[in-house]
Amino acid sequence: MYSYEKTFNTDAEEIFGKIHKLLKEANWLILSYVDVKEVFTKMDKSIDPYYILDVCYPPAAVDLIHDNEDIGAFIPCKIVLIQHGKSTRLIMPKPSVLSKEYLDTDGKVAEKYEKALIEILDKINS
Fold first, then answer.
1. Are 29 and 60 in contact (CB under 8 A)?
2. Class of the CATH domain delimited by 3-121
3. CB distance 87 to 15 below 8 Å
């Protein structure tokens, strides 16, 4: 499977807040995020809450880039939150899968940090 996925019985804003708190506690960063609903609203289009987050653990970036400098095409890690009604789906493409498929690497370094991020995300409960 190319991604880690999880569904929560709560809204995207609450999950976003929990992700922010847990990442901060683990010294990960949210480098940027896109509020797709806000972008659509400016175009007079509607969509349920939808966020795209770029997250990073700086020591991981150092290791990953030293493993294969082309990994920059797949980092920072992306987390997508898609709300449907009262539930929210979280999707995170796995950098290990992407690096094995598209780069000359065994994906082990990416897998190490991917597992660490999944452990953080698994702490979210709704």
1. no
2. alpha beta
3. no
Which pLDDT belongs to residue 33? Answer: 97
Residue 125 CB contacts under 8 Å (≥ 6 apart), including other chains: none
Domain boundaries, the chain: 3-121
Contact call for residues 57 and 27 (beta carbons, < 8 A)? yes
Backbone angles phi, psi at 71, to 5 degrees: -60, -20
For 79-113, what is each residue's pLDDT tens digit?
999 999 999 999 999 999 989 999 988 999 999 99
Query: For residue 59, which of 2, 101, 117, 123 has the smallest C-alpha distance?
Result: 117
Whole-Å CA distances, 38 to 33, 44, 48, 92 = 12, 10, 10, 21
For the beta carbon of residue 73, count every other beta carbon within 10 angstroms: 12
DSSP letter string, 68-81: -GGGGGT-SEEEEE
Neighbours of 5 (CB within 10 A): 11
Q: Is the pTM of this model over 0.90?
A: yes
